[in-house]
Design goal:
170 residues, mainly alpha, 7 helices
């Protein structure tokens, strides 16, 4: 019983850290956007489309991963999602033009949607009902913290080493 409890909270901490990186990745673009706009000479609309592409793909893929999470092993869905969004982040680092960056951000939307839809259900399975609210509150604390970190890191890294390097954080 004690080992199960330790494993459950270790898993919660791991899922929190992944969620933190997830939201950092999501907001790196916002922090580095002025550098990306300048590098690719983008209009405001084109710059805004980077986040829009991510969000549209994320929105469309999330129900699919919810359905898959009910039918398949969720830890594998999470692992595949993390792999895809990591691959997309590396792709964004190497992006040489706007279209390549746009495709990488869209792929990140698929990877992140697999994680966001399945991770809370893993927590619900592992944490007893009496402690589940606190566990989920801790897990979701990564949203504002990771978002702020991503925005700050995107701008700071973009200013010091170039926007490409910001994507290596995620």
């Amino acid at each position: 019983m004690f080992v199960d409890t330790i494993l459950a909270y270790y898993t919660l901490i791991l899922l929190f850290l992944i969620n933190l990186i997830n939201y950092m990745d999501r907001f790196l673009v916002s922090g580095a956007l002025s550098f990306i706009k300048s590098d690719f000479t983008l209009s405001d609309g084109e710059a805004g489309a980077l986040m829009t592409a991510f969000l549209i793909v994320f929105m469309c893929a999330s129900p699919l991963f919810g359905w898959l999470g009910d039918r398949y092993v969720r830890k594998y869905l999470i692992a595949c999602g993390i792999f895809l969004w990591s691959l997309a982040a590396v792709g964004a680092f190497f992006a040489k033009n706007y279209l390549q960056l746009m495709v990488c951000r869209a792929l990140a939307g698929i990877g992140e949607s697999s994680y966001v839809t399945t991770a809370p259900t893993v927590i619900a399975d592992l944490i007893p009902t009496a402690r589940r609210g606190r566990a989920l509150a801790f897990f979701y604390l990564a949203i504002p913290v990771g978002s702020a970190m991503g925005f700050m890191l995107g701008g700071w890294i973009g200013a010091h080493w170039g926007w490409h390097y910001a994507f290596l954080c995620s």
